[in-house]
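The methods section describes the discrete structure representation at length, but only in general terms. The central task, working out the structure tokens from the amino acid sequence alone, is never made concrete. Nothing conveys this as quickly as seeing an actual entry. For illustration, here is how one protein appears when written out as sequence plus structure tokens:
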Amino acid sequence: MENDFLKKKDFLRWSSLKKTVWAMAVACACMLGTSCDDAEGRIEVDDTAPEQVTDVKAVSGPGEVTLSWTNPTSPSFMYTKIVYTNSKGEEQYMMVAKDKEPTATVKGFANTDTQTFLLYACSVKGNNAGAVEVTGTPDTPAFLEVVNTITVEPVLGGALVNYKNDFATEVVIALEYYQASDEGKSGSARFNVPANSEGSQLVMLVDANNEFLEGECVISLTAQDEYENASAPIQQNVTPLPAVKIDRTLWSFPGYVENSNDGTIGYSSQEAQGEGDKDGLKNGRVVSMIDSSLNTYWHASWKVATNYPHWFILDMGREVTIASVEFTRRQGDARGQTGQHIYTCTEAGASDPSNPDNWAWTDHGSFPFDPNIDTPQTCGLSTTPKARYIKVYFGTEHKGTGSQAMLADLNVYGAEE
């Protein structure tokens, strides 16, 4: 089915190009005085085979070859078609219209094998005088170099994956992992490595039930490109530092007022009237995120209309070392946010209790959130900070289909101090 889809996609792309080229030919024909028969509504165009392209060159790049050439001067020339075979053994083609720069970069090669390229100078209907053949040898693909830079070190609740990418192209690192003592406890992760970058990515080692793996873990890593080419896997064993769910007994939200929708120093707003209480618990309020019930939820105010941004500050009552923050959506409701920005602050950093804007916040960046699933979603903090306060900010860039943010449950994993 996938092959049929790709064939259909190629056919549509080819049909679209033919229509574009034909339209160009029609326009050129009319401008150049080519015969137009108004009576019959037909336009005659020159479809003779153009001369071949000349001065063809091939320049190597990482997993790619850049071709350049000189277009023919034949009046019937409309485009250059480049035919080659990709790393999966499939014949592919690219087309470059005559009004474009006569150059093309063919990407996605998985090795340094010499490649053959056929360049056809075509008329509007594809008529040509045969191919000009040129060979080129790609340099080592970026992903094959990046995989050799990967190192892994244990951290609280997971592993820190270090990498270096000296290439002007993005690479993907994919992980498969399992607990050495129980291979049934396993998981996977993947992340993008930006072009020309060196850094680290925290990967929380959790299973399908979002439970941390314990003891020695086996990690298999590959580097990949956007064309699904992948390196041979490398294996590394790590033993993460144990991470636990932080007890919520001392948790609160600064300035909390039970029966008011208005924001305080600890949150932008809450819905204290419109959601109603459930199971004897305060629904709609910020405290509904820490009441141990998935049937209740915090909801930004809507009776008094609000819109993004929304935010809240969690006070854990003591300092802990944080591995990750876990969010669970309002159950069965997909109108919520699509992400959140996370900040942390130490107890000493909260020097002005009346004005959190002046606190010494550490920015941990933005994390995606899928509002379509009911299961918990984990945001790993790569620096595993020590903090008492966590600020969660829902900016306009995180706006979902509704105007308010909402969450059913909030947890923090780390090491208690």
